[in-house]
Amino acid sequence: MSLICPICQTSLEPSDSGLICSNRHSFDRARQGYYNLLPVQHKNSRDPGDNAAMVEARRRFLDAGHYAPLAARLAALAADYKPARWLDIGCGEGYYTEQIARGLPAADGYALDISREAVKRACKRAPQLNWLVASMARVPLADASCSLLASVFSPLDWNEAKRLLAPGGGLLRMGPTRGHLMELRQKLYDEVRDYDDEKHLALIPPGMHLAHSETLEFPLHLADAQARADLLAMTPHGWRASAERREAVIAEPFDVTVSIRYDWITKTQSPRSQD
């Protein structure tokens, strides 16, 4: 286990009820199986992150298989890199995390999200993983402890990612292209803002570089009103658009384009010392 105390950054060790560090900061293991490593002083609200309704909408939509090709490709890419230890940063309710875990049965897997409601549901999917309620800006894992980081539709602290990665390890990022859900956005807004597919690349810190990129795109027919409502609830468009536009989207079936970009961004391998 490579967990560190979120308060003092010393190593965490197993205790009778959970985890404890050498400075006696202790963290209980919840009955659902996760560790809450988000101290109250690191919270911006009482229950940060997605609420129960948002988490449940995403669970229904993803479990219905609408984004199954996205998860399958993500898991295949992760398996190709054969990490010894991996972390899903911003795991949500664990749908994508579970797919990654299936392809890496021998690896040491960790997953975290700031939303306790999300992690409570996530840890039921793959009990063998180490599930954490924690901050993505203060990840409670040791420096250079991970061979692979997964970031799926999630904000990212790039310097924290660099800290966590071992030399030669990489970040597997999955995010939308400018064409993702275009038809939905056209229904919701009078003017659809363009999106730069490569904007995030400018944020890559020194010592990391883009090694591979690919796009997966397919049409999705949303015949079910519940699926349309859930899609709205799990995206920012659900609260940005007017109530009238949201109701119109839910009322009628439509086709939408799913378009996702995968990036493999590696940390530079340290040169071997000369004898």
Number of separate strands: 11
Number of helices: 9
Rounded radius of gyration (Å): 19 Å
Shape: globular
Mean pLDDT: 91
- Give unreliable regions as ranges: none
Structural class: alpha/beta
State the end-to-end distance. 32 Å
**Which CATH class is shown?**
Alpha Beta
Topology as a string of helices (H) and strands (E): EEEEHHEHEHEEHEHEHHHE
State the helical fraction.
25-40%
| Beta-strand proportion | 25-35%
Number of domains: 1
Largest sheet: 8 strands, mixed
Provide an overview of this structure.
With 275 residues, the protein is α/β, with parallel strands linked by helices. It has a single domain, classed as Vaccinia Virus protein VP39 (Rossmann fold, 3-Layer(aba) Sandwich). It has 9 helices and 11 strands. It has helices at residues 52-63, 68-81, 95-103, 116-122, 158-164, 182-188, 225-233, 237-240, 243-251; strands at residues 12-14, 18-21, 26-28, 35-36, 85-89, 108-113, 130-133, 146-152, 165-176, 208-222, 254-267. Strands 4-7-6-5-8-9-11-10 form an 8-stranded mixed β-sheet, sandwiched between helices. The radius of gyration is 19 Å and the shape is globular. The model has no long low-confidence stretch (mean pLDDT 91).
What descriptive keywords fit this protein?
275 residues, globular, alpha/beta, Rossmann fold, 11 strands, 28% helix
